[in-house]
Design brief:
The protein is an alpha+beta fold. It contains 4 helices and 8 strands. 34% of the residues lie in helices and 26% in strands.
Length: 149
């Protein structure tokens, strides 16, 4: 180890710079909108569109698709399977914003649909145009003013 002291200011500047360029596994840049950090520009655009429309939503909804369990035969502990959905819109739409659809998303998305079957609606959005069209569709369907699962 080196005994050279790094000035605090330099360390803070480097940390801030690193935060600004943080990307996720698909190189999407994290964006802060209205004090909340979103995983991509498109996700922040969705939140902004929902805010402007007055439609209520919850961001980053974690749903357990399969509970944890233990195999009696071997004693092996199996972790739960969960999905974090980008938005629960008006308490009835699970919405995920996708640039690139990566594994295991398609399988988890199917499991989510199975769990909630006909009690929820499901939408993946990939563009700003798709977001606008989705907002219009929700408005036309007489959306509920609730956020519950």
């Amino acid at each position: 180890k080196s005994n050279v002291q790094v000035p605090t200011i330099m360390t803070e500047e480097l940390a801030n710079l690193k935060r600004k360029v943080t990307t996720n596994k698909v190189n999407a840049t994290k964006i802060i909108y209205s004090g909340v950090e979103y995983d991509s520009r498109r996700e922040a655009e969705m939140a902004e569109a929902l805010d402007k429309s007055g439609i209520k939503y919850v961001h980053q909804v974690e749903v357990e698709l399969q509970p944890a369990f233990k195999l009696e035969s071997t004693g092996e502990s199996i972790r739960p399977i969960r999905i974090v959905v980008d938005f629960l819109v008006a308490g009835e739409w699970f919405v995920d914003i996708k640039g690139i659809e990566m594994q295991p998303f398609p399988i988890k998305w199917k499991m989510l649909k199975h769990k909630f079957r006909d009690t929820k609606k499901y939408q993946t959005l990939t563009s700003k145009k798709a977001i606008i069209e989705f907002i219009e569709k929700v408005k036309l369907t007489g959306w509920k003013d609730t956020l519950s699962l």
